[in-house]
Amino acid sequence: MPASETTVGPRGSLSSLMAGKRGLVMGVANDHSIAWGVAKTLHEHGAELAFTYQGENFGRRVKPLADSVGAELLLPADVQDEASLEAVCEALDKSWGKVDFLIHAIAFSDKNELQGRFADTTRANFLKSLDISCYSLVDMSRRILPLMSDGGSIVTMSYLGAQRIMPNYNVMGVAKAALEASVRYLANDLGPEGIRVNALSPGPMRTLAGSAVGGARRVYKTVADNSPMRANATLEHIGGTAMWLCSDYGASTTGEVIFVDGGYHAIGMPHLENLPKVEG
């Protein structure tokens, strides 16, 4: 059989793995966003997409990306505004009637507090970071539940700083820890409805959000030098993992935090060749 016709099972070719599936992608800021890497991969394998954006500036950035994948639904959304989220779900219901997957890639912290000590986090930034970065997943999962009448998949984005201390990650580490716990509780709640809930934990990425963390370039290089794969993940790698979780092949995977970081999460310390030499 020619390579172009190779199949992956009874459901058809790999290129049509997401054919007939529709989903909402939240969190695209530009073409370097993790959410865009996921969206692009899902589109390439047949999915129909809708996007949200917050504010006109981001709307202008997201529109050409949405157009490039034939997305007809580009919806304003503020995860701290209940009316805004209600309008998003109403638009999806009116246009599609049902949704098969939700990609949640939303996080926030004041960048001035993503450096220095976690102990200096302000109450206002702590609460806002947890609200936007964690509660928004809970809120959107509940709201989109009626649209997942045939079951579905919810995928959010975490980071190793949820489980280990990472330089300058500070309150975002706490927010991501809460997010990962929320994934497990949501998976249990929504499982009887045929809905899976999982988190991806990519390594450090060259994204707009990632650049806000102090020392991001050094962290990026350290992970590349010391991960078992000796490389950071790409948007395509993350997109492929998300596609598996959203496809029928992910039907029995839920409540998981899946690392897509070249194996860096398994490393206890840098490789010897990357440690300072000690005399004597």
UniProtKB/TrEMBL annotation:
Tree of life domain: Bacteria
Annotated metabolic or biological route of this protein: Lipid metabolism; fatty acid biosynthesis
EC number of this enzyme: 1.3.1.9
Pfam families to which the protein is assigned, alphabetical: adh_short_C2
Entry binding sites for NAD(+): G27, S33, I34, Q54, D78, V79, I106, K176
Leader sequence segment: none
MF GO annotations: enoyl-[acyl-carrier-protein] reductase (NADH) activity
InterPro entries in the record: Enoyl-ACP_Rdtase_NADH, NAD(P)-bd_dom_sf, SDR_fam
Keywords: Fatty acid biosynthesis, Fatty acid metabolism, Lipid biosynthesis, Lipid metabolism, NAD, Oxidoreductase
Catalytic activity: a 2,3-saturated acyl-[ACP] + NAD(+) = a (2E)-enoyl-[ACP] + NADH + H(+)
Active site: Y159, Y169
UniProt xrefs under PANTHER family: ENOYL-[ACYL-CARRIER-PROTEIN] REDUCTASE, ENOYL-[ACYL-CARRIER-PROTEIN] REDUCTASE [NADH], CHLOROPLASTIC
Annotated family: Belongs to the short-chain dehydrogenases/reductases (SDR) family. FabI subfamily.
Protein name: Enoyl-[acyl-carrier-protein] reductase [NADH]
Organism of this sequence: Albimonas pacifica
